[in-house]
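Anyone? Bumping this.
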Amino acid sequence: MAQRSSPGAPALPRAGDMQRKRTRIAYLSLLPVLLILLLVKAYPILATIYRSFTNWDGLYKHDFVGLANYKEFFGTGLFMTLFKNNLVLLLSVPLQVIIGLIVAVLLYEQVPGWKAFRAIYYIPQIISLVILGYLFRSMFSLDGPVNKVLEALGFSSSVREWMGDGSTALPIMVGCITWYSIGWQTIVILGGMSGIDPSVFEAARLDGANFFQRTFKIVLPMITSVITYCVVMAVVWTFTSLFSLIYSMTGGGPGYETMTLDYMIYEKSFVTGSQLGMACTISVVLFIIVMLITAAEMKLSDIAEQKWG
Amino acid sequence: MKLQMKKAIALLLAVVLMLGTLAALTGCAKKADSNKLTIWINGKDSYIGPSEQKLAQEDWYISQAIKRFEDANPGVTVELVVSADGETAHQTFKADAMAGTAPDLANLWTGQNIFSMEDVILDISSLIPAEDKANITGWDSVTSPATGAVLGYPTSDNQICFFIYNKQIIKDCGLDFDNNPPRTIEEFNAACQTILDKGYQPIASDESFPWFGCYIVGYWWVQQSGMDRILSDCKGETSFTDDPGLLSATEYYRSTMVNGYLNADAVTSADSWNKFCQGTVAMMPQVSSVVSDAETALGAENVGVMLPPDFAGAQITDKTIGGPGQCLVVSKDCKNPELAVKFLSFLNSKDEVMKFLQVQSKVPTRTDITAADLGLTEGSASAKLFTWADKTVYWVDNSLYTNIVGDFYNLLPLVLAGKMTPAEFAADLDSKVVK
């Protein structure tokens, strides 16, 4: 009910005016953050897209070259080599999510030894990726412990230079990434599971559901949105944040056999004579790929939630 | 009243924020003090040596040299800024140069690394004293082949490539590299085979980045083809595919692994230097800056150096790859280029170079300093390097064009591993030529 003002008292603003004022204040409050975001996010993205059509060398040379960079990148087969490596490394995503889920349920159900395990499972996550990379590189070197163990077990014919070939180095990287990421996945999934009523578990147990039935038929459908978040973040991370691991493990080599799209951005920018125009082109391609994959994942997640959620 | 106060506070905060932002933005602009120089020096493998990194900054050679210069030029100040490393220094220098805030002087790499930055580096050819031009070598490493502009002073660090060897192992194999080093490829193969038969690893190198390729294979290429031919290949006037020097040099590179002369894990290993210093490897392709470390590890009497063997019929013989890999440049933002060059000339004076060499064992670019001046033992590896100062051909990889050098670095290990033939490698380099 509108308040009636008494004569002589200051006029109270009407509800519509109040709403407009609140809206204006809300926008004004957001304005500084929006401006900062535009400055630090939108401008670099737009500048990168523009420079991807130039032969920018990091200095003043930035002639417009049209689609030449894109033609070179896609035409020489370099894109397919790098993208294929990225796709192989993506195999770590289902592994880390599934193992993370299993570990989370084990911790949730407080299996014997869960307290000790709770202190251990996150350790890989706090080790620098550079150190992990060197660790794996040493383990799988020709004189490393893995080959020594194989020799000792009589598998001398299997001894090889694991990091000297993409077909063996990439699966090792997948293993390393999975091992590193399980802790993060477990924490996020455990957080999601805190919203599940414990009586659901109790009822399932009483109904005779085994561990895997409880994990995949009860927990999984109830935390679809959390799993989506885990998958999306892991995919984005795998595409954009593996530089330090690859740098320390193989340097992208031999040749381009373990090099990924994000690593090539560094190569073009800093190693091979400031081809920053091309680096921008690869950045744009990577940006589009990540956006498309993320959109597809979210769409699939929606469908899954509608069907089973 | 309360509302008014809130408004006043909000306004004040907004003004402070705006002024702060403006101050931050304008604060980047340099003060035009013509008696002040700012110099960037790379934090490692530069004027700051490995042993100095343990010391306080004021005890570093470069800090003390700056102080001596300031004392000799009252009113002048030189501010030292330490860059993380050489790679990032180039990119940071470019970014600052574009913003108009580049330092007066910067420590960069020579060759194509600075030739591609001519827009922001000052041509100091008219400011260099004649005495420096006459007594310092390595000017070609800082002189743009396109314009003839001199883009800096080469640092007094003539990095010479060679095979460093363990004298004990060589002696144990019945060889005498000190007096009778292998000078032809055939003699070199025979020596490697003898070492291998004796149970030692003849050569070790970490080739995930092709150091052997840059230090020695590059020499085998340039000695057969000549630098003009290599540059002509880069321009597309001739082709890498038809360059016999490149093909035979890379074929021989591959053969070192096939024959077991080079460590089998060269493409991925990272510990070859450790193995050499532990005395388990006979030879290693190396550069002058590591000799003192090897002498410390194995004893000076057990460390020898030799030039790479020559291919039969090569147009360049009895030489090796080398030259100053680093330089000090004056930026176009420098307010007092005369003072900047005066400082560079001071750093390269005989007195200063002698002081520098007492801290780091390097082969100087000054021709008027001898091994005897530094008290080096005759016949030692360090003394031998002095005699090779005029035996260098400029770095091949630093001479390759930017569009080509990436594949040179990345694909050469594939040739070594046998995953790519020399012809395929050459064809790939041709595909990167921009005509």
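Late reply, but here is one note on the structure posted above: The domain at 161-321+395-431 of chain B is CATH 3.40.190.10 (D-Maltodextrin-Binding Protein; domain 2).
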